[in-house]
Design a protein that fits this description.
The structure is a homodimer.
Chain A (H helix, E strand, L loop, with lengths): L5 H6 L1 H25 L12 H21 L5 H16 L15 E4 L5 H11 L6 H5 L29 H20 L11 E5 L1 H5 L1 H13 L4 E7 L2 E2 L2 E2 L8 H7 L3 E5 L6 H13 L5 E6 L21 H11 L11 H31 L1 H12 L20 E2 H12 L6 E5 L3 H4 L18 E3 L4 H14 L4 E7 L7 H9 L5 E5 L17 H6 L5 E3 L4 H15 L11 E4 L4 E2 L7 H4 L4 E4 L8 E5 L4 H13 L4 E5 L3 H5 L3 H7 L7 E4 L8 H4 L4 E3 L10 H7 L4 H13 L1
Parallel strand pairs in A: 1-2, 2-3, 3-7, 6-7, 9-10, 9-11, 11-12, 12-14, 13-14, 17-18, 17-19, 19-20
Antiparallel strand pairs in A: 4-5, 8-15, 16-18
Cofactor (chains A, B): Co(2+); thiamine diphosphate; Mg(2+)
Subunit structure (chains A, B): Homodimer.
EC number (chains A, B): 2.2.1.1
C-alpha cells in the first residue's frame, strides 16, 4: 500500500505548533491525572482476616484463570471489586443457592457486565449448581453457562442481562421498584411476604451513560430505600484515565438526585468500612444509597494494576505468575482453597435458613389471605388467572370509529382488573398515549402499591426499568409508552427485552405521518420495519378495535411464554393518533394469526390481493371496492403482525396469500423496505420512503401518495405485470 | 361494544382499599405541588419599560395567534419565555438578520423545540427575511417556513433542528465546542476571527432526558465558557406538575457537573435580573453557565397559565380574548406595534455593525495569514481542498489482509492532514474503534485547538454534539465512533443527522457476530438493515482496504452535498473487528457506485450471481471458486452500499445484476430482511435472523450456518428453482 507520510505532514509549521501544544496539553493532563491518582487507595496492604483474604483472592484468581483460559475477557474489574463483592455476598446478600428462584431473595445486578467473571465466581463460590468449576473453565465458549456478559436466560443466579453500560443500574431501579410495589401491595402487619434488597455494582462507564442519570433521578424521586449501589471508582476507562473525559462530582450529582451517598476510600482493604457503609445504606430507608468505593482496577497485578491494559485483556502467563507472587497465592489454576468455600458457605446457610423461615410466613399468608394470595401467586409464578381476558370488548361496524390509541386505553382498562401483574405508564405522555389505568392511582414514594408509573421524559430508563420489573417476577406484565418516534431513545432496552426474554409491552402511539402538524421530527417512517427485523420482538399494528384487542391478547400471551418457542417475548404495539372505522370481519382470534382475510373471502381466485395494516387497512378496503366497481375480484388481507403470521402453517399462509395470485399491493404509511417478501416480484408497495413534513395529516397522505387511488393504480399495474 | 364495569371492579374490597390509598396519595401530592407552586413567580406584575413590555407581549401574541390559526401547536412556552427571550435577543444576541449565515454570529438553540413559535416570532421581529408575517400565518401548514418544530434546513436563522427533547442542548454543546476549537485554532493576537456565544433555552423535559446529563457533563469537563443555557423552570410537564416525576435539584446537579449556575426567581417580570444573569454568565469564561429562570407557562392566560392545558393546545378564541384583556393588548391578530419592531431593530443594527467590523478583521486576516486562512475558509464555506483525498491509499492482494476497522484508521489518518474540517473521536472505545488521528492531540479544556474528541461513554450526546459541530460550519466533517451495537444508544441523533442534513460520519466497528466472545449483547444482527431503511442516511460496509477508502471518499463527498440530491448526507460506516484479505478487483471508483462485479466479470451469462458485503465478500468469492470447480459460471458482486447503487442508472444496475440471471444468493452476517429486493423470488439469502452467542467468531459463523458451503448449497437451490 502507499505509505502514509505523517512525519512530512507533522513537519508543516502550523502542525508543528499544534504538536507542541498537544504535548503541553498531554503534560497538563498527566499532572491532573497524578493529582487524582494520589487519591487512589494503596496498591498493597493487609487484610487482617486471613480467611476473608483467601475468599477475596479466590474471586480474583478464578476470574484471572477464566479470562486467561478463554484468552478473552475483562479481569480488571473482578480483581478490583473482589473485596466489596466478598463483603456484600458473605455478610449481606440473602439468597438460597439451592433455590435460585426463591421469590424473596435479594437481587444482585452487575451493571458493569463486562466483569462477568466476578458474577460467575461469586455464584460458584456460593454453591449455585448453575456454575460448576467446569463451567468457569468454559468461560466465553459455545454452549457455556458463562458467556461473555451475564445472561439471565442462560445462568441461574444471574438476575438480568448486562453489558450495554447503564442498562443494569436502570434494571436495578426496576427490581427495587417491583419490590417496593409488591411489599406495599401484599404485606400484612402479621405477614411480611415481600422484603428484600436490590444491590448493584456499577462502574465509571455506567455513570457516564445518560440512562443512569435518568434512572437515578427516578429512584431518588420514588425514594427506593432498599436499592443499594456500589460504585466501583477505579478512575480507569478504555481510553485511559477518566480524567480525559469524566471529571464531574458523581457523589454530588447523586445527592442532587435525592440519594444517600457514602464513600469508602480504600475499597481494596477496608472490609470494615465496606461493612459499615452497606449497613448504613440498609439503615437509610427513605432514599436509595450510592456507595462510592475507590479501588484499583486489576488489584494485585504488579505491572498492570491501575492501567487500562488490565480492563479488557487477559493478564497472560507471566503477569499472572507475578500476580500470584504479589498476592501470595500458592494455588493452581481454578484451584480454590476450602477456607474460601467455607466463607461463602456461611452465607449460603444463612440464606437457606431465611428461605425456610419465609416458607412458614408464606404458608400462613396463603391460608389467611386467599384473595390477595391469588394475585400474589399469579405475579410470582406467571400463571394467568382463568378470567384474565374476559373483559376484552368486541366491536362491530356499528361502533364509533376511533384511534387505536383510544382502543389501547380501553384494553388496558379492561385487562387491569383481572391481570394482577399489569403495571406501567408513559414517559410524560399519558394524556396522548392514553395509558392510565383509571381504577388505580400513581406509583409514588408514598403510594408504591399503585400501578400507574410516571416515568417523566426518560424513555431510555423507562424501558430498562420495565425490563427490571419483568425479570423480578414472571407474572409481571409491565408496559411503557411514548410516541413511536421516541422508540429511538429506548432501542437498546427494547432489544434487551427481546434478548433477555422480558415480556414487556411497548405501547407506541402516533405511529405515522398521520400525526400531522408536529412534523418530521415526530413522524416515524422507518420504525415499523426497524422492529420487524429485531429478533424475538413482536411488532403489531392493529387496524381497528377488535384487532387492538387481539394484539393485546397475543402480547400478554407471549409475555407469559405462551408461544411455539415457549419463551417470553416482548411486543411493540403500534397505535395511531387518528381515527379509523371498526370492521365486522375483524376479530381477536384472526388477529392472533398475524394476517387474515377481511374482505373478498368469497373469491376462490381473486384477481389481486391488497394487504393493509393499521390506519391503512380501510384504505385497502376502499380500493378493493373501487376495483370491484370496475369488475375485478379483490381480496383484502389485514396483516397486523408479520411475526405471528410467519409462525402459521404453510397451509394457512397459502390460504391467505394465495400463491397463484401475483397481483398484489401492500399499503402502509411507512417504508416499503421488506414488503417484497409478501407482494412478490410482480407486486407493488404503497408507502413513504422519505421523511415526512409538518402539515395536517390527511393532506400529508395525499402529498406522499398514500391514497385509495394510488392503491387502485398500483393494483392495476401489478395485475398487468 | 361491551361496556366496561369499572365501578363493579372498584367495588371489590381490595380495590376499594386501594382507591382510598390512591386518594391519600393524590392529596399528599397535591400538598407538595402547592408547596412548590408557592415558589412560582407572580402571575401578574409590572414591567416598567413599556416598550420592552410591548416587545415581550408581541412575542406572546404572535405565538398565540400562530397556534390558534393552525389550530395546533404549543403556546405555553413562548408566553412564559417571552421575557427572557426579549432580553437575550435585544441586549445580547449578536446576529445580522440580513446575513443569517455570517460565520461569527451568536448561535441560538431552542432545545424545547415544541415552543417553535417563540423562535419564529423572534426571527420575524428581528427582521429575518425568512420569516415574514405571512409565514407566521402559515405555521404548521404544507410548504411553510414555520413547521411544527424548528428545522434548520427550512428556515434561515434556525441553527439546528429540535423537537426530540434533549437533542438541542447537546447540539448547543457541539456548537460551543466548534467555536472553542475554531477560536483556538485560528485566532491571532491581532485578529480575533472567531468569537461568539452559544445560547440555548431548555425546559424540564430536556433536563429529564439522559442525553442532557451526558452533554452537560462533557460541557463542564471541556469548560465551554461561552455556552449559556437558560432553563425555563415552569414546573409543568404534559402529565401535570413536575412534582409527579421530577423532584431532583437541577441546579445542584449542574454544579456537580462543573457549571456556573444562577437562578432568576421572577422570569416573568425581572428584566434587570435576567440582564444581570446573562452578563454574569458571559463574564464567567471558564465554565458553561446555567441560568434557571422561574416562569409561568402560558403567562397572561387568566384560566390556563400554570397548567398543562396551555402546553400543547391552542388557547382558543375565548381564552385569547381574556389574555388580551389581562395583558392590555389592544392589537389585532398578527398585528405588531411599531414600538415592538423598534426594540428589536436596535439589536439588528448592533449586529449589522458588529458584522461590518468583523469583515475588516476577516480581510486583514486573509491577507496576513494565508495558510491558516485557507483552512479556515474550507471549514466555513464547505469547499474541499483540491488535494483532500490524494493520500487515500490503494491496496492489492499482495497487501496484508486486515480488519476494516484498521483500514478505517488508515483512512482517517490519510484524510486528516488535507481535510481541515475533519474532527472527531470515540465514546471511550478509541483503541477498539481505531479512531485516533495520530498527528493531533486531544481536544481538552486547555487544548481546544486539537482534533481528537474524547466523548467518554456517552453515545447519545456524542451523536448530537457532532450534529452541532456539523451545523456550526459547512466545512466541518465530524466523525464519531462506537461499537455498531451501541448505535442503539444514539439512533435519534443519527436520524437527526439525516433529517437536518448534518454530514456526520458514524464510524461503527465490531459489525457482526464476527466479534465473537463478547456475545449477543454486543453483536449487531438487525443493525445494517435498520440504517438501510433510514431516509437520507448512507449505510456502507466495505469488504477490504480499497472499499474502505472508497466508502470514506463517498462519505466525505456526501457530507459536502456532492450527490444527486445536492444535500448533505450523513454516513454510517460499518467496519469489522476481524481481518479479511485485500482484493485486486476492488477500487475506490467502483465502491462509489454502491455495487459492482469483483469476480467472474468475463461471463456474459453466468449461471448465478453471488452478492456479498464486508467480511462476507471473501466468502462469496470462495463459494464462486468452488462452484466453478464444478463447472458453473459464477459472478460475484460486492455491494458495500445499497443506497449508492440504487442511485445508479438502470442500465448500470442491470449490467451488474443481470436481470435474466435468477440464480442469486446474498451472504451477509446480518438479518436477511430486505435482501429479497436483490436476490428476487428464486434467490436465497444467507444470514442470521436470531441473536448471536458468546464464542469465538469463526465458530459462530459455522454454528449459524454462514459458511462457504452454505452459499454453495443455496446457489445450487437457487439455480434449480
Amino acid at each position: 500500500m502507499v505509505a502514509l507520510t505523517l512525519q512530512t505532514v507533522a513537519a508543516r509549521p502550523a502542525l508543528a505548533q499544534r504538536k507542541q501544544q498537544r504535548v503541553q496539553a498531554r503534560r497538563s493532563l498527566l499532572v491532573r491525572a497524578q493529582a487524582t491518582a494520589t487519591a487512589a487507595p494503596p496498591a498493597k496492604g493487609e487484610i487482617k482476616d486471613k480467611n476473608a483474604e483467601l475468599a477475596i483472592n479466590a474471586i480474583r484468581f478464578l476470574s484471572i484463570d477464566g479470562v486467561n483460559k478463554a484468552n478473552s475477557g475483562h479481569p480488571g474489574l473482578p480483581m478490583g471489586c473482589a473485596p466489596m463483592s466478598y463483603v456484600l455476598w458473605k455478610d449481606f446478600m440473602t439468597v438460597d443457592p439451592k433455590a435460585p428462584k426463591w421469590a424473596n431473595r435479594d437481587r444482585f445486578v452487575l451493571s458493569a457486565g463486562h466483569g462477568s467473571m466476578l458474577n460467575y465466581s461469586l455464584l460458584h463460590l456460593m454453591g449455585y449448581n448453575s456454575v460448576q468449576i467446569e463451567d468457569l473453565k468454559q468461560f466465553r465458549q459455545w454452549g457455556s453457562k458463562c458467556p461473555g456478559h451475564p445472561e439471565n436466560f442462560l445462568t441461574e443466579g444471574v438476575e438480568v442481562t448486562t453489558g450495554p453500560l447503564g442498562q443494569g443500574i436502570a434494571n436495578a431501579v426496576g427490581l427495587a421498584a417491583a419490590e417496593a410495589h409488591l411489599a406495599a401491595r401484599f404485606n400484612k402487619p402479621d405477614a411480611k411476604l415481600v422484603d428484600h434488597y436490590t444491590y448493584a455494582i456499577m462502574g465509571d462507564g455506567c455513570n457516564m451513560e445518560g440512562i443512569s442519570a435518568e434512572a437515578a433521578s427516578l429512584a431518588g424521586h420514588w425514594g427506593l430505600g432498599k436499592l443499594i449501589c456500589l460504585y466501583d471508582d477505579n478512575r480507569i476507562s478504555i481510553d485511559g484515565h477518566t480524567e480525559i473525559s469524566f471529571t464531574e462530582d458523581v457523589c454530588a450529582r447523586y445527592e442532587a438526585q435525592g440519594w444517600h451517598v457514602q464513600h469508602v476510600k480504600d475499597g481494596n482493604h477496608d472490609l470494615e468500612g465496606l461493612r459499615a457503609a452497606i449497613a448504613a445504606a440498609k439503615a437509610e430507608t427513605g432514599r436509595p444509597s450510592l456507595i462510592k468505593v475507590s479501588t484499583l482496577i486489576g488489584y494485585g497485578s504488579p505491572n498492570k494494576a491501575d492501567t487500562h491494559d488490565v480492563h479488557g485483556a487477559p493478564l497472560g502467563a507471566a503477569e499472572t505468575a507475578a500476580t500470584r507472587e504479589q498476592l501470595n497465592w500458592p494455588y493452581g489454576e481454578f484451584e480454590v482453597p476450602k477456607e474460601a468455600y467455607a466463607e461463602f458457605a456461611k452465607s449460603a446457610e444463612r440464606g437457606a435458613a431465611a428461605h425456610k423461615a419465609w416458607e412458614e410466613v408464606h404458608a400462613a399468608y396463603k391460608a389467611k389471605y386467599p384473595e390477595e394470595y391469588a394475585e400474589y401467586e399469579s405475579i410470582t409464578t406467571g400463571k394467568l388467572p382463568a378470567n384474565w381476558a374476559e373483559k376484552l370488548p368486541k366491536f362491530t361496524s356499528e361502533d364509533k370509529g376511533l384511534a387505536t390509541r383510544l382502543h389501547s386505553q380501553t384494553m388496558l382498562n379492561a385487562l387491569a382488573p383481572n391481570l394482577p401483574g399489569l403495571i406501567g405508564g408513559s414517559a410524560d405522555l399519558a394524556p396522548s398515549n392514553m395509558t392510565l389505568m383509571k381504577m388505580f392511582g400513581d406509583f409514588q414514594k408514598d403510594s408504591p402499591e399503585e400501578r400507574n408509573l410516571r416515568f417523566g421524559v426518560r424513555e431510555h430508563a423507562m424501558g430498562a426499568i420495565c425490563n427490571g420489573i419483568a425479570l423480578h417476577s414472571p407474572g409481571f406484565v409491565p408496559y411503557c409508552a411514548t410516541f413511536f418516534i421516541f422508540s429511538d431513545y429506548m432501542r437498546n432496552p427494547m432489544r434487551m427485552s427481546a434478548l433477555s426474554e422480558a415480556g414487556v409491552l411497548y405501547v407506541m402511539t402516533h405511529d405515522s405521518i398521520g400525526l400531522g402538524e408536529d412534523g418530521p421530527t415526530h413522524q416515524p417512517v422507518e420504525h415499523l420495519a426497524s422492529f420487524r427485523i429485531m429478533p424475538n420482538m413482536l411488532t403489531m399494528r392493529p387496524g381497528d378495535g377488535n384487532e387492538t384487542a387481539g394484539c393485546y391478547y397475543a402480547a400478554v400471551q407471549n409475555s407469559m411464554s405462551q408461544n411455539p418457542k415457549g419463551i417470553k417475548r416482548p411486543s411493540t404495539l403500534v397505535f395511531s393518533r387518528q381515527g379509523m372505522p371498526n370492521m365486522d370481519t375483524t376479530s381477536i382470534e384472526a388477529t392472533m394469526k398475524g394476517a387474515y382475510t377481511v374482505h373478498g373471502a368469497e373469491h376462490a381466485k381473486p384477481d389481486c390481493i391488497l394487504i393493509g395494516t393499521g390506519s391503512e387497512l380501510v384504505m385497502a378496503v376502499d380500493a378493493a371496492k373501487k376495483l370491484e366497481s370496475e369488475g375485478k375480484k379483490v381480496r383484502v388481507v389485514s396483516m397486523p403482525c408479520w411475526e405471528l403470521f410467519e409462525e402459521q402453517s404453510q397451509e394457512y399462509k397459502d390460504s391467505v396469500l394465495l400463491p397463484e395470485v401475483t397481483g398484489r399491493v401492500s399499503v402502509e404509511a411507512g417504508v416499503t423496505f421488506g414488503w417484497e417478501k409478501w407482494v412478490g416480484q410482480k407486486g407493488k408497495s404503497i408507502g413513504i420512503n422519505e421523511f415526512g413534513a409538518s402539515a395536517p395529516g390527511p393532506l400529508l397522505y395525499e402529498k406522499y401518495g398514500i391514497t385509495v387511488d394510488a392503491v387502485v393504480e398500483a393494483a392495476k399495474q401489478s395485475m398487468a405485470a
